[in-house]
Amino acid sequence: MACVFITGSTDGLGRAAAQSLLDDGHQVVLHARSADRAAPVGDLASRAVGIVIGDLRSAAETRRIADQVNAIRRMDAIIHNAGVYTERSRGATPESDAFTLAVNTLAPYMLTALIQRPGRLVYLSSGLHRGGQGSLDDLDWTKRTWDPRKAYAESKLQVVALAFALARRWPQVLSNVVDPGWVRTKMGGPGAPVDHETGQRTQSWLAVSDEPAAKVSGRYRHHLRQEQPASEAADPDFQEQLIEKLAELTGVALPEA
Hints:
This protein is of the alpha/beta class. The protein has helices at residues 12-23, 35-38, 42-45, 59-72, 99-114, 148-169, 196-208, 236-250; strands spanning 3-6, 27-32, 50-53, 77-80, 120-124, 174-179, 220-222, 225-227. It has an eight-stranded mixed beta sheet with strand order 3-2-1-4-5-6-7-8, sandwiched between helices.
């Protein structure tokens, strides 16, 4: 059975994925933004291998999350589930980065670079990433007027590009992306058409399944089906430029193969 670390696993899709994997006999390491956020998951925490605490808006805390995970054991898979949607303002992390960029892009990049390399990486994106092209000139929204939907779309395109870059750079790791759809979570709202079980199924499957279709890399999937992402995200030149900029912003270099 696999051991899987899931970011943002106190509610929503992260919690649903954790529940599903635990029910299937796998080991899970949970993540909560704070000790207060961890309290309501006592039922899952009692079954989990561990729970790590840290706010992904802070680079220092993101580093500590990586340290906590590494202290538990090498993960078989990591699901980068945590994310924010339409932040009303750019905000500013302790490092002065925009909140959306920090949580949706910088944190998964840093955790990928700092956590002992697993066998599988799964990143959550969104169909809205197709509206996020052209972000490299102002990655951190320091020049433009803040647009929360555009910032979200850009961050999700960047996640797709990161996953595809890793599929090329780390051929021994299965690195894939999931669009879970519009799910009835706090982010998606009660009117969303997709339930938690459907929304979490693809990322859980990619993290642990031995089916041949799950053991491939560099794919973008929606409800198990392979789909074509935005052309920019699939462009190796864009991917390399993005990784260079993320390394500059975070001070963290992505390890070589």
